[in-house]
Amino acid sequence: MNKNNQNLLLRREIIRTVENQLNQDNPHETRLTLNRLMENNPDCDYDEAVRKMAVILAGEMHEMMKSQEKFNVERYIRKLKELK
Which of 14, 43, 55, 61 is deepest in the core (most CB within 10 A)? Predict the structure, then answer.
């Protein structure tokens, strides 16, 4: 598998993780963020909102691996709330 295929698979898995968070309403802020993004920006549909949240999740995952720490839910929620 080449690097482009690996990157595509990783992106899909991160988006799937955000969608799982939405479906499970855990953390609840994912649902609040989705609704806020779509309500406040007429150009932001479901897919765009999920992609934006996936970027936040990917950044949090990167930070987690870089610092060898557990997933920081509070920081993730804070970043979701800052998302525009």
Answer: 14
d(C-alpha 71, C-alpha 60), whole Å:
7
* Mean pLDDT along residues 4-12: 91
Distance CA 47, CA 62 (A): 22
Structure letter (DSSP) for residue 68: T
Sign of CA dihedral 29, 53, 8, 48: positive
Structure confidence by residue, pLDDT tens digits, 30-59? 999 999 999 999 999 999 999 999 999 999
Q: Kindly report each contact of residues 20-26 with a partner whose C-beta sits within 8 Å and lies 24 or more positions away, as own/partner.
A: 22/50
Residues in the chain: 84
